[in-house]
């Protein structure tokens, strides 16, 4: 749906049209109609206090299109605008490139030069007090790590200690090279563990508090979806007071919020609580919780992974025991504000309460997930994660939908602008709007501002209709032959997107001897270095899985062919998505379309979006899975993709790729 918006003039500030024109000229760009449409739509949504979803294709310049009206609103209201992203890469782009250039360009036209700051969760900042005080150890059991890993962690700890003496921000991301979570946890605290600036001896120089203070004094606060969710759903505000939020990479919002509210119970979480409570209570009381944790450990080790639809009696009794013994420990600790004049003891008690509350509350959630009259009444799903060599099995619990939380906590209090290159699934915004809780009429609007790319002239969507449907036994030989012929026609220059790491590795091993071009596979090195190598050497190919579907930006001749091995439906045994499908069906909906098809459409659109990253880019999207054109749901999936020229004739993409390989290449857009 396309809607025409008219800019609303203001008596004392330049219009968004004027500000956008100044900004575009300052960065050496050119006016794009989609960008103009978007900047007006965002301004009107802010003025009307109406939620807005904007699909803006790659190359639209959507960052400028939402930053310009955001800055204008901050100036006019004297309140910051919060911009939330899903990835660190986009945060860095906003803070290091887009906002500094915009601030310089607009400074002379506005009451003051726009200001901005980045704000992360407390865990991302060094805790000065924990770094210097006798804080309770919360590292995992040493036996889970071999001596080499323990030694490596020790070296990282030493690096953090040296860095702590010189850092001005305490921001973990500024520690290069990075350190493991194991090492970092010894120098950071969660919001629940924090003593608070007024009680902590280091409160006056707390890095997290200083970052929050800076955020309260600027026009634009850049954060992430997880912190946005914590702020919206928590009892205490984390972000400065604000009335407007821009959610970039909005297609990731539901998954990130779900992660924030997912609970975990395992031998590690229980034993951590026991260690935290330590000598603060009678040993016999702590031992009761330890024994309950050992019972849980034995149960989880013997149980098969997957959804736990019905609560086995023995598991129910164990969860009740954990709940009750954790509460006994909480009671034995006494008043929560005791020892407030002794920071060391207060810190130990706060850490103990935090760990015990997590264990107790998660056990309560898991018990409450059962006993409903019907599947339609169930609110949460419990499943067993089988663990790995490094991690023991764990029980997890998550809500079947976060739409109610988002509707009440995020959209109920603020004006929210949601944007991404992929929001219109099946050609409409309805699917994602329902997941966000925006199903009511008149409270939101969705627009597609298009793309500056000429998709039918720049790209071919080829579906290998002649191939067999993909099975569960790895890649069929016909798929490997098809991949080989396509890569040979392209002269390399291929990004292979696979539905699983097993498939990506199998294809890499099978094809390395068959191809005369370099072939990289995700996992061979860090993803960032692999993408860099792929971009710098034209014949090189790169195979990988999920993070490559959404995280690769390689304009120019190094990428001419994107291969997608199969329609990326979630695994049938995925506990959360399968439970959500069943829940939708129990309420009279189409669980497959509402969950699995939406998931596949979103990833397909993201994967196809890797091909055209600049005005000069051309190439082929090759989907090997014939279901994209033969299945009953194919129309929905195809309508979620950019309007490439489509074909099922194998000769057409091969000929096009050969022509592209023979052409002199033009430089990528600046």
From TrEMBL:
**What keywords would UniProt list here?**
ATP-binding, Helicase, Hydrolase, Nucleotide-binding
Q: Which interval of the chain is the signal sequence?
A: none
List the InterPro entries hit by this protein, alphabetically.
Answer: ATP-dep_Helicase_C (IPR006555), DEAD/DEAH_box_helicase_dom (IPR011545), DinG/Rad3-like (IPR045028), Helic_SF1/SF2_ATP-bd_DinG/Rad3 (IPR014013), Helicase_ATP-bd (IPR014001), P-loop_NTPase (IPR027417)
Which EC number(s) does the record attach to this protein? Answer: 5.6.2.3
A Gene Ontology molecular function term of the record: hydrolase activity
Q: Where is the Helicase ATP-binding domain?
A: 21-292
The protein's annotated catalytic reaction(s) are: ATP + H2O = ADP + phosphate + H(+)
Name the cofactor(s). Answer: [4Fe-4S] cluster
Q: Family assignment?
A: Belongs to the helicase family. DinG subfamily.
Write the protein's name: DNA 5'-3' helicase
Protein's organism: Nonomuraea bangladeshensis
Species classification: Bacteria, Bacillati, Actinomycetota, Actinomycetes, Streptosporangiales
């Amino acid at each position: 749906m396309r809607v025409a918006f008219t800019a609303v003039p203001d008596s004392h500030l330049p219009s968004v049209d004027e500000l956008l024109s100044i900004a575009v000229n300052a960065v050496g760009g050119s006016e794009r109609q989609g960008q103009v449409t978007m900047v007006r739509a965002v301004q009107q949504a802010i003025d009307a206090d109406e939620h807005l979803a904007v699909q803006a294709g790659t190359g639209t310049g959507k960052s400028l299109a939402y930053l310009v009206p955001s800055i204008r609103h901050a100036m006019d209201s004297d309140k910051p605008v919060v911009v939330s992203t899903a990835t660190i890469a986009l945060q860095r782009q906003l803070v290091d490139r887009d906002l500094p250039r915009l601030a310089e360009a607009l400074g002379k036209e506005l009451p003051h030069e726009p200001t901005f700051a980045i704000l992360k969760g407390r865990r991302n900042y060094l805790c000065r007090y924990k770094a210097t005080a006798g804080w309770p150890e919360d590292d995992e059991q040493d036996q889970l790590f071999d001596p080499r890993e323990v030694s490596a962690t020790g070296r990282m700890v030493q690096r953090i200690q040296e860095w702590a003496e010189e850092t001005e921000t305490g921001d973990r991301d500024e520690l290069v090279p990075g350190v493991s979570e194991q090492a970092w946890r010894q120098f950071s605290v969660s919001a629940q563990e924090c003593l608070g600036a007024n009680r902590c001896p280091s409160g006056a120089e707390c890095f997290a508090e200083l970052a929050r203070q800076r955020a309260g004094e600027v026009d634009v606060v850049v954060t992430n979806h997880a912190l946005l969710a914590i702020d919206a759903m928590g009892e205490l505000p984390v972000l400065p007071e604000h009335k407007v939020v821009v959610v970039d990479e909005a297609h990731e919002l539901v998954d990130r919020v779900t992660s924030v509210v997912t609970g975990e119970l395992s031998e590690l979480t229980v034993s951590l609580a026991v260690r935290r409570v330590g000598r603060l209570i009678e040993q016999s009381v702590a031992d009761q919780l330890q024994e309950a944790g050992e019972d849980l450990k034995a149960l989880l080790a013997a149980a098969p992974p997957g959804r736990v639809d019905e609560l086995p009696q023995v598991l129910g009794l164990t969860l009740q025991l954990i709940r009750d013994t954790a509460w006994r420990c909480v009671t034995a600790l006494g008043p929560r504000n005791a020892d407030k004049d002794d920071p060391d003891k207060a810190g130990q008690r706060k850490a103990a309460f935090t760990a015990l509350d997590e264990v107790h509350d998660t056990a309560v959630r898991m018990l409450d997930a059962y006993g409903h009259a019907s599947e339609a009444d169930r609110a949460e799903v419990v499943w067993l994660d089988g663990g790995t060599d490094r991690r023991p099995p764990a029980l997890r619990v998550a809500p079947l939908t976060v739409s109610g939380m988002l509707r009440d906590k995020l959209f109920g209090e603020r004006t929210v602008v949601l944007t991404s290159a992929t929001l219109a699934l099946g050609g409409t915004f309805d699917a994602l709007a329902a997941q966000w809780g925006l199903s009511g009429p008149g409270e939101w609007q969705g627009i597609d501002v298009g793309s500056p790319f000429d998709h039918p002239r720049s790209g071919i969507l080829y579906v290998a209709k002649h191939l067999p449907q993909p099975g569960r036994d790895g890649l069929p030989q016909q798929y490997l032959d098809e991949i080989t012929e396509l890569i040979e026609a392209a002269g390399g220059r291929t990004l292979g997107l696979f539905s699983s790491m097993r498939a990506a590795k199998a294809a890499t091993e099978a094809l390395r001897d068959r191809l005369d071009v370099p072939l990289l596979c995700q996992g061979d090195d860090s993803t960032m270095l692999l993408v860099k190598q792929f971009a710098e050497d034209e014949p090189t190919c790169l195979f990988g899985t999920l993070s490559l579907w959404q995280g690769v930006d390689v304009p120019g001749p190094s990428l001419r062919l994107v291969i997608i091995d199969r329609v990326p439906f979630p695994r049938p045994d995925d506990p959360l998505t399968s439970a959500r499908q069943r829940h939708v069906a129990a309420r009279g909906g189409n669980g497959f379309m509402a969950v699995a098809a939406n998931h596949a459409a979103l990833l397909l659109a993201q994967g196809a979006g890797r091909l055209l990253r600049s005005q000069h880019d051309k190439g082929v999207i090759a989907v090997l899975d014939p279901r994209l054109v033969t299945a009953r749901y194919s129309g929905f999936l195809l309508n979620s993709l950019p309007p490439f020229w489509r074909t099922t004739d194998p000769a057409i993409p091969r000929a096009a790729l050969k022509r592209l390989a023979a052409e002199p290449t033009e430089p990528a857009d600046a």
